[in-house]
Amino acid sequence: MLQELQRGMTSNTIRGIRRKKSTLTEVKVAVIGAPGVGKSALTVRFLTKRYIGEYDHQADMRYKHEVLVDGEPILFEILDSCPKTEDDIPSNEILNWADGCLLVYAITDRISFNYVRKVKELLCDIPVALVGNKGDMVHLRQVSTDEGEILAKDYECWFSEVAAAEQVSQIAEAFNELCREILSVRRRNKQSLLDRMLGGKSSVKVYARGKSDSALPKE
Hints:
By secondary structure, this protein is of the alpha/beta class. It is built from six helices and six strands. The longest helix has 43 residues, at 169-211. The chain is globular, with a radius of gyration of 23 Å.
């Protein structure tokens, strides 16, 4: 069923890409978390607004999905990672591929909370958003909301507790907030590059004016 969903999402998206390819902004998001935290449920909620509780895929899944974020058409390329154990850390290939990472843990599983902390140590300047899933299972809570907020403050990133089984808009907001941060970083990097380029041009102009000294009368 998940493979059919992937094929359907890709087919629909390709039509959208052909229609608007020149106007689309693309962002690559890796959804990362320990096994069983609900990464696939979150991803499919975002893609289809449907909830599927059981997944049997044994490998990473990739999807493409076109949405509007603040009125701008965005093409999300999403990698739903599939670690086999809590010691299975995402490869450098995945981390280098992604423009940003959605770090997911379950509020009912402290090991999964420690997992995202361990993954974050591998990430340098890449934008992240932190999500505590299974917020509807507070009777089984092992990780407090305060702990999630403190960790997000340390990471200087967006944070929310959500419930993939019950929520749609909150999950979309998690992806959208990560997208906003990715685009913000791109704009800052572009401005920084522009400033360096303008600085270089400025020094060339000064040098050119200096060369005009040769036209002064000789003593």
